[in-house]
Amino acid sequence: MFFEVKELCRSFGALQAVNNVSFTLDEGTTLSIIGPNGAGKTTLFNVITGVFPPDKGEVMFKGTHVTGMPPDKLCHRGIARSFQITNIFQGLSVFENIRLACQGRKATKRMFSHVSKLKEPMEEAERILDLLGLLDLRDWRAGTLSHGDQRYLEIGMTLAAKPSLVLFDEPTAGMTPMETKATIELIHKLKGMVTIIIIEHDINMVFAVSDRILVMDQGNVLADGLPEEVKANEAVKAAYFGEEI
Amino acid sequence: MIDYLIYVILPQVLHGLVWGTVIAFIALGLTIIFGLMDIVNFAHGEYYMVGAFMGYTVMSVIPNFWIAVPVAVACVAVLGLFTEFILFRRLYGRDPIFHLLLTFGLGMMFREAAQLIWGAETKRMEVPVTATVELLGTVYPVYRLLILGIGICVILFIWYLLRYTSAGAKIRAVAQDRTMAWALGIKVPLIYTSVFVGGVALAGFAGILMSPINFVYPTMGVDVILRAFIVVVIGGLGNVMGALFASLLIGEVEALASIWISPTIAETLVFVILIITMIVRPAGLFGKAGER
Amino acid sequence: MAKLNSVSNFKKTFLVHAIILAALAVLPLFLNGYHQKLAVEAIILSVFAMSLDLVMGYAGIATFGHAAFFGIGGYAMGVMLKFLFPSIWLGLILAGFCTAILAFFIGFVSIRAKGIYFAILTLAFAEVVYRIIFHSYNTPLGGSDGLVGVPTPMLHLGLVDIDLRKTVNFYWVAVAFAYLSYLTCKLIVGSPFGSILSGIRENENRVPFLGFNVKWSKVTAFVLAGIFAGFSGAMFTAFKTYADTEQLNFLLSGKVIVMALIGGIGTLIGPMVGAVVITIFESIISTYFRAHHLIIGALFVIVVIFMPKGLFGLFARKDRNNNGS
User: What would be the CATH architecture of the domain defined by A1-78+165-245?
Assistant: First the structure.
């Protein structure tokens, strides 16, 4: 199994933020996690990526234990994530942001030669900026970009580590409809190249990109299946979709 | 064995209590000022020093300690008001490292000014109460017990002020969320100023109270501020109960350790306690983990 | 196009460096003995201030105990020259070795504490070092009297031997020392490792998700800064022929921060200039005023209130935006 979460639990005081969550993921698929605010989606990401350890349960990646492993080690193994609240290096240029992210996988090699002489990360950074359409803005300070461009940069930094599993936490948060559309296209480009887990509120996007959908509510898994199955699920309708669908 | 306890340990325990109380005076001001306005006041010890020197000056004109105390405290309060008004005001909301630097420079200025005005040599002050009292057979100076008594009263008063008065409620509200407090009509700048003045006046008070026991000299503030800092950090920055507990801990450790090892090594022991605390609990004994 | 640009940039940089070095080289010919001595001190201290910039300006970690490394470097040099072997080189090696170990220990223990807690913790460590040496009366270190009577040996440089007892000679050696230190630090901050440090300064929480270990990066930066501070302290002792506890004092830790801030942190060259400016300023006012600390203290206050980014900081921001990478 490529990626597997087994009976993961995490509570904060009396709040059971993640309760017995299990799912598996095949290589190359895209899984969306949906659910109302406070359903425990971001906490699930935080537990998977080692921000804090789980109370119980395990996370397996490519057949090895990665439960509670610190983020930098996970990154070396090929798991990268983006953040719901833009989490970039405001004072560095766009290019520096991406290049720093690119050098992460090979952090130990040639640590003290000048950065501009490191061919691989330089070219890789250019390639990613091109993919995101940020090439024109390469020398801008990241903090001066528009919200949407900062969101793209956030995605770019996540991809720069060349992960085989990406966790996107609401990549379209605060984006305009145009930008959201572009992001959907971007995710389509990424599908097949990497395995994706995505937390998303935009229902159109969820159905446009997902191979599978996992619905969470109050820390529990409410449903897990193909998009059509989830759409038909009565419990999900009641808890989440309301009368919209 | 009993004799050892009474004649060696007991006086040192009392010394430790008195010393701890004096450190608490300074640490309380320091930690409340930090908790409220995020200011790390490295010059806090200099207000202690100024308090002692002011007392010394008043005593040389009117040789009455009980007149010198309120005058010295008032002088320090005015000095505090003055410095808050022209300097500290500009620092609110800036990175704490700048506070450390500004107050570092301010401390330098105060020390040098004190040296210019009063000279570098140490001064002695008469002990106002020379009586002694017998406790379980060991003789102990009444003046030290008086400091301890005053200290307990002041600490209880501060606790009452913060916990049960409307002024205290306002201070706690500002410490929790200054924007919200401001929006609710609390005059935040006024609270800042009065807390700062109160904090440094407390340091000045400690300065004059200690001056008959310790000597009076321009760098006396440095010795005490390092300890107060340690106490505040061990207790968790901004944590009043933590500062009180740590003051007594440090006072006792220093006093008791100096029975068996030289006082200078006992002093270093204080730093070692700090370092160990920081390793075990990086945000202080009573601080919440992950804070700052 | 980009390549062409970088070649001409390189030429320009080379020219600027050559001019500055030439100016520094001929400077002592116009100075009297006292001012030459002052110049040597200023240059040595500039390396100290620059070393602080590695942690404060690049990694964004405020440390308040940097004098510990300067002082220990000084004592290491003193011990080497006076008791072990009269060689500047071996003195530097010992200084680097001692400060590296000390910095590793302090950094490793303190790094979990953040922000102001880290600053106070480093202050406490430095104070412990200060007190231990201050009270070491019966050891060769001399306690509060300091380690005095350190001989100044010849500097063996391949075929030539330089007599360092001549101030002018020491001056040129100091310039070379400062320049080499600057180039090395420039290399460090321009390396991938330097980028990680900038990342930590800008947003420490994101860095681990890019595959870097924040803790070890910080400790490494702290150790590197400690080593360079140790080198400068060692040179200081070799020049002054003594090492004393003033070099370990927390006052010096504070002063070096002001030096760096005045020059502008995050630029390397800024703190160096700041150190020179403060050293000269202090010497001037101390000849006119007995209470020169009053004015130095006032200077601290003014710097913090009116120019938190320093003289060079103002230019540096612009510069960075133009260069991009």
Answer: 3-Layer(aba) Sandwich (3.40)
Confidence at A110, pLDDT banded by 50, 70, 90? low
Q: What tens digit of pLDDT does each residue of C121-168 get?
A: 898 889 889 988 988 878 888 888 889 888 888 888 877 888 888 889
Instruction: List the single residue in C6, C191, C202 with the smallest CB-CB distance to A89.
Output: C202
CA distances from A119 to A99, A114, A124, A125, C186 (A): 11, 10, 8, 10, 20
| pTM greater than 0.95 (yes/no) | no
Q: What percent of chain B has pLDDT over 90?
A: 20
Ranges of CATH 3.40.50.300 domains, chain A: 1-78+165-245
CB–CB contacts below 8 A, A to C: 105
CB A77 within 8 A of CB A47: no
Chain A segment 52-71 residues within 8 A of C by beta carbon are: 70-71
Question: Chain C residues within 8 A (CB-CB) of chain A?
Answer: 6, 187-188, 190-196, 198-199, 201-203, 205-214, 320-321, 323-325
Going from N- to C-terminal start, the domains of chain C cover 36-249
Q: What is the pLDDT of residues B183-206, one digit of tens each?
A: 888 888 888 899 999 999 999 999
B100 has a chain C CB within 8 A of its CB: yes
B–A touching, 3+ CB–CB pairs within 8 Å: no
B19 falls within a domain? yes
Q: Which amino acid is at A120?
A: E
- Give the residue numbers spanning the domain of B154: 2-25+39-220
Pull the structure tokens for residue B172: 């706690």
Q: Give B201-213 pLDDT, tens digit per residue.
A: 999 999 999 888 8
B261 within domain boundaries: no
Looking from the CA of A60 toward its CB, the CA atoms found within 13 Å total 14
The count of domains in chain B is: 1
